[in-house]
Write a structure and sequence with these properties.
The complex is a heterodimer. Chain A is α+β, with helices and mostly antiparallel strands. Helix content of chain A is 32%, strand content 28%. Chain A has 5 helices and 6 strands, in the order αβββαααβαββ. Classes of the chains: A alpha+beta, B alpha/beta. At the A-B interface, helix 4 of A face helix 1 of B.
């Protein structure tokens, strides 16, 4: 099994995701709701042999904020999505784009390569990835805010 | 100077564009394409001076794009920005005529180092 995926600090998140979102605010900590009813979305990161080695989760408010802000959709859409727990197709595409960039949060010059396999709502995570939810060796949470859109909690979990 | 960014990820194109600005290359004319085939068409019409291309893309990979440009005698500066940089890939890239290969994650400093000699 591949090992050695680093967990980022807040500065690294600002450094990387700040290239996508001006004025991004990141604070360490936060409580992540990973229950099926919570509506979170996860990027599943796999090693070169296809094994899930890390997860990046955005709770429903952050996923909606990411999804709306990336295409500059009306900020009011975020509230509707949080209420329904259903992201629009465009928002899901945007979350996929952002999760692809988030692979860089758990890689450095010395770590093994990984890539985004796909994004899933927490209730539809494949079994191997869902297993990582409760068995991750490392995890770190961050409270992220995007100007005008709001935000939520990001979690990163590694084997 | 005209710079073409080729990557199938919208987010990555945004990041490359912003990193170019942070590296001090903000005064150039920057255009984008989301795969190699579209890049080839763009190159023929807008004639960029520099192409920054991802390696893996649908329709036409970055390497196929470079090989096509070389076989057609198109003169421009071509470099890769890619996650995977194995010795084999590097050999193929430079063998096909790439001038540089920047590995992700990159920084404004690595852009300055690799692109500085090629951007006027």
């Amino acid at each position: 099994m591949a090992t050695g995926y680093p967990l980022p600090d807040g500065n690294k998140i600002v450094q990387i995701l700040g290239l996508l979102f001006d004025g991004l605010d990141v604070k360490p900590g936060g409580t992540f709701d990973k229950t099926p009813a919570g509506g979170a979305w996860f990027g599943v990161f796999v090693s070169d042999d296809g094994e899930p080695v890390a997860l990046c989760g955005a709770d429903v408010t952050l996923a909606a904020s990411f999804g709306a802000a990336f295409s500059m959709l009306p900020p009011g859409m975020v509230k509707d999505v949080v209420k329904s727990r259903e992201l629009t197709g465009v928002m899901i595409d945007n979350v996929r784009e952002i999760m692809n960039i988030c692979t860089r949060l758990v890689m450095d010059a010395d770590s093994p390569h990984l890539k985004l396999e796909q994004v899933y709502p927490v209730k539809s995570l494949p079994a191997a990835a869902a297993g990582l939810l409760g068995a991750a060796q490392g995890h770190r949470e961050f409270q992220i805010q995007l100007p005008r859109y709001g935000g939520g909690v990001l979690t990163l979990l590694t084997v | 100077m005209k710079i073409l960014i080729v990557d199938d990820s919208t987010a990555m194109r945004m990041i490359v564009k912003k990193t170019l600005r942070l590296a001090g290359f903000e005064r150039h004319d920057i255009t984008e394409a989301d795969d190699g085939a579209k890049a080839l068409a763009t190159i023929k019409t807008s004639k960029p001076d520099l192409v920054l291309s991802d390696w893996n893309m649908p329709n036409m990979t970055g390497l196929q794009l470079l090989e096509t440009l070389t076989s057609e005698g198109v003169k421009l500066t071509f470099g890769f920005i890619t996650t995977e940089t194995t010795p084999d890939m590097r050999a193929k890239a430079f063998g096909a005529g790439a001038k540089f290969l920047i590995s992700k994650p990159f920084t404004p400093e690595s852009f300055k180092e690799h692109l500085g000699p090629h951007i006027r």
